[in-house]
Every structure is written in C-alpha cells, then in structure tokens.
Amino acid sequence: MGGFSIQFRQQDDITILALHGELDAHTASELEAAFQRCLDEGKVRIVVDGSHLDYISSAGLGVFMAFVDEIRERGGDIKIAALKPRVYKVFDLLGFPMVFDILPTVDEAIARFRATDTSTRKT
Amino acid sequence: MPRTRTYRITIPAATRYLTAVRRFVAIHAREAGFSEAEIDRIRLAVDEACTNAIKHAYKGNERGLIDVIIRVTPEKFHIIVRDRGPGFNPSDYQAPDIRRSVRHRKGGGYGIHLMYSLMDEVYFRRKKRLNEVHLIKYRRPDTSRTSTRAHT
User: Fold this and answer.
1) DSSP letter string, A52-79
2) In this predicted model, what pLDDT tens digit does every residue of A55-106 receive, in sequence order?
3) Are the CB atoms for B68 and B80 separated by under 8 Å?
C-alpha cells in the first residue's frame, strides 16, 4: 500500500504506460519523469493504462494537464484507459472527460489512435 | 460513552507522509460507518489539505509540522488540518478551468476545488499563528452505525 510504479511497453508506435499503486504529491514526479522521457525519445502517442492505479490526487492529475498540450503540439496525444471507477470519479470531478479521451480499455485507446490515422489518411 | 471522540496524528511537512495520513483518516471514517465511496472522498479531501500545507504553507520545509485532528460526533465527521505557515485567504480562491490549465501547461490549483466538491462543508480559519482547514462530512442515518447516540 502506498507505493507507485510505472511500466513502459511499446506497441508499434504507441507507448503504453501502466500505472501501479497510488499517485499523489509524493509520487507525481515519477509520472512527470515518464512523460518527459516519452517526449525526449519522440514518443508522443501515449496510452496510460490505469487498470492498476488505486488512487489519484490533484497532484497526479496536474501532471496530465501540464504535459498534454506539448504532446499534442508534437502530433501526439495522451489517452487514458481502464480506470477503476473510484479513480475515474476523481478525473470526472475535475472535468477531464472534456479535455482527454478516456476509454474503457487499453485496446480501445489504441484503436482510437488508429482511427485518427485512418481519418487523416482519407483527408 | 462520550458523544465526541477525537483522534490526532502529527506529521512533518513532507509528501512521503501522505500515505500515513490517508490510512489514518480511512480507519476512522470506516469506524464511523461511512461507505467505501464516502471514505474515498474524505481521504482525498484530507490529502489535498495536507498537500497544500506542505507545498504552500511550508514550501517544502520538512521542519514544519501538520496536525490532522478528527472529531467524530453523532452528527458529523469533522477533520481539522492545522499548520503554522502563512495563512490562506479564501477570497483568493478561483474555481479552476481545466481547458485553461491545459493551454497554459499548468497542473496546480485544484486542491481547494476538490475539497469543496468532496465534502459537505469546508472553511478556513486563522487562529493566532495557526492556519486551520476544516473539512466536514455529515453522518447520515444510512452511513452511521451509531446514529441513535444522537438521542442519548
């Protein structure tokens, strides 16, 4: 209880960050470092897998807000997937669904990126 | 049986103690008969108040101390988060706008908004050199195992 870790995995050009544990003012710097690492490596298509995230406070939510604009400016996005209902409630309280794609599963988040590719190619 | 029970924890102003505060609050909220969903809300509100004290009152100076005091009465679960830093003026509070935060690449300023959203009552007090954030959740009959005590 109380720990936090992030696992990285790559699926083609999409980086999946799986969050485990509790994301608060103490652990938010780890998510900052993870997004920064993605930016430094030019990996701007990011899915955050929240299926093992047990807790989030505004410090953790703030990290998403601080990075998403730059990631979008570089042609990517952060899509948030598989949140537990108790964690989703906190995202919802701050209005995240107005600004972020929040999907029920990681596969749907990946499909959302693919759908953008298809529509871009068509136009 | 006393009508008011009081519990207290004091932590240094460092974020690594937030887990202990959350655990402390959850234990007593559960004991008071709140549902898991309500416990989640109370725990998050207290985390936000402590985080504000660490970041804004003490600005990361770990020599500062934060008291978290819980008073449980038959009617309410009342948490006081107390620090000895500069006071917060509630009139400075502005409801945040997530779209603007994203545009400005800023993630802060949401703690107070969450406290107001999560609790039934929130107020701030300055007492001599102490700052207090008061967070109140009312114990409704369906969430209280001891509500009959209100009539004793």
Assistant:
1) EEEEE-HHHHHHHHHHHHHHHHTT-EEE
2) 999 999 999 999 999 999 999 999 999 999 999 999 999 999 999 999 999 9
3) yes
Give the closest of A26, A61, A99 to B107, CB-based.
Answer: A61
Closest residue, chain A, to B100 (C-alpha):
A65
Both tokens of residue B15?
């974020």
ipTM: 0.91
- Going along chain A from its start, the domains and CATH numbers come out as 4-118 (3.30.750.24)
Which residue in B15, B98, B103 is closest to A26 by CB distance?
A: B15
CB-CB under 8 Å, A94 with B110: yes
Domains in chain B: ranges and CATH: 5-151 (3.30.565.10)
B73-92 exposure pattern, b = at least 16 Cβ within 10 A, e = fewer: bbebbbbbbbbbbeebeeee
Residues B127-146 as b/e (b if ≥16 CB within 10 A, e otherwise) read: eeeebbbbbbbebeeebbeb
